[in-house]
Write a structure and sequence with these properties.
The structure holds two protein chains of two kinds.
Chain A: H1 3-21, H2 23-30, H3 36-42, H4 45-68, H5 76-104, H6 110-135
Helix pairs in contact in A: 1-6, 4-5, 4-6, 5-6
Chain B: H1 2-25, H2 30-40, H3 46-58, H4 75-87, E1 106-112, H5 128-138, E2 145-150, E3 154-156, H6 161-166, H7 170-173, H8 185-195, E4 200-206, H9 220-236, E5 241-256, E6 264-279, H10 280-288, H11 293-296, E7 303-307, E8 316-318, E9 328-331, E10 338-343, E11 351-357, H12 366-369, E12 375-378, E13 384-389, H13 400-403, E14 408-414, E15 420-428, H14 433-437, E16 439-440, E17 455-456, H15 458-469, E18 474-483
The chains are: A mainly alpha, B alpha+beta.
Chain lengths: 149, 484
Amino acid sequence: MKKQHLIYLIAGIVLTVLFYVMRVNAYEAVYAVSGFSDQLYNLGLYETIPLITIAVAWAMAGIYYYAINSVRFDRWYHWLVMLALVVLIAPIAGYAINSHVFDENGLSYATESLTFEMVNMMWAAVLFVVASFSMRWWSTNCRHTPIPQ
Amino acid sequence: MKRNKVFITLLLSMALITVTSALWSCSSSPLEKAIKQALVQQDTTQARFDSICSIIKAYPERYKDYLTDDGQIDIAALASLIEEQGASLRPPMHWNVTQYGLQQLSLTIYFERSGSMVPYDAPGGRGQLKKAVNDLINHFPSGNVAINIVNDGIYPYQGSIDQFLQDRNIYASTQGVGNASFTDFQKIFNDILAAQRPGNVSVLVTDLIYSPADTRDVSVEKIFNEENSLATRIFKQYKGKSIIVHQLMGDYQGKYYPYNNQPFNYTGQRPFYLLVIADTPVMDAMAAGADYAQFMQPAALRNSYRFNQAEAAVDYCVIPDWKDNAGRFRVDHHDAARLTRCEGDKTTGIMCFTIAVNLSSMHKSAQFLADAANYQLHSTSGFTMKVVPVDQSMITGNNRSYLDGKTHLITLTGKLTEPRDEITISLANDFPAWIEQSTAQSDVNPGAPDFATTTLGLKEFLTGIASAFGSGGNYTTIKLHLER
């Protein structure tokens, strides 16, 4: 195990934890609307949605590098397929939870929720890149994806 | 080998999810979560409060900070936690739970039985006075009520509460109790105040006409001065008390005893008063408690004023999306009173925003609270304000968290001419005009146009109480900071 690779892994974990700690600022720096953002905050959705996004990004990276881990699926566009899946799964799951919680509380923010999930899509992509560069080094067949070492 | 990798990957993913979920769920205790949930769902009811208390009682070791030595809920400590949790929400939310510690209150009625009070309950009249007292008894939540008859002294009512409520002529049935020819205010108030124990609410039912013994050849001014000094002297000894003076009108049929001791028959309306006396924290809690709303605001109330009402903070928030909004602003996440990035409308330059405020604990009439003239507004940019009561039809799903529990909307309109502005809105605690308007300087002429609506020396007596407590100042002040 190279020391440099371990640093990548630790840096990836630190960045992910930092993202979670600073999640409200991270999301609201890009998109904040009084009313809608307050409800996300009060209803704990700024905890649930980032958590799901982190889990999806890291799990998909793990699946790609260690479960799939195939020479037939080791090109950069294969990695892009995984990225596309992440940026679809995380916002869809986030939107479903968001809608459910808002419906339960009699709130209606359909347009704002969609815009928010666009932002979530962006953070999901960033987190997948972080997770990929944290764990790719020990993959036997895909460690050169998306950029060769 | 491949299976192992799949297994390790899944295990790692699950571990990551589990650790983060665990961190998330451990971030607050069940008690804090329950409080936050109640606040977010706007379910600030007694039932919800009881369910929160049950969590504390279920884990007495864990939540011992919220229990008293005898195992009861420490309302003050819990209120402080609720305030802390509410402050972490957007906008900060408040829940006054002190009212839930009021179950043990008792009510003592002091029913004045002087000569001039008897005609208020004459068989031919509509009996508004007796109805008002019956309502007080019926609307007092604990039902722990005692009744006394007062004139030259205080005498316990001999019947039961049910007998009192059903009594069609209370003055006939209490005939012979004490000396009805004069009312010794000094003795009565001193006795009431000295007898009052923690958790007791006293109500004196009176015409508030100071009628000491032997006033022949004494000038009315002298009586007024004596009355004023007497009130100050009595109440100065009880700084921790609060007094509400309710004025109501009742039918009066019978002999009236003016200050010159030459009684005459009078048929018509006359004011009478309910003086509610309690420790200030009890009065504050009753004013905030929904259970006491009817007790604190009797039906057919004409005027009311509370003495010794300290300036209190009120719950308010800026409504981000409101129909009247003009221009742009952002409510600071950590300070609900700070609006940043304020800009006027692009075409008119006008900025308009609305705050929702809960003024129910001010214990003022709806008319008083909805009149913008009763508020003092200070703004360097010259903002103006209007006040409207919150109507249930205004509440929608999206604004519920801002409007629920709020009683009034204050809309501020103006042009932000400076980079910063501090808008101060105060509800002034001025000595009310109705007291002066309800005061008679003489009560010897029943034909006087204001005889039916005025009371001899009312102002002198009430200003005496006011000087004992040092009234004035504001009921509440709201400060908003605007920044471009």
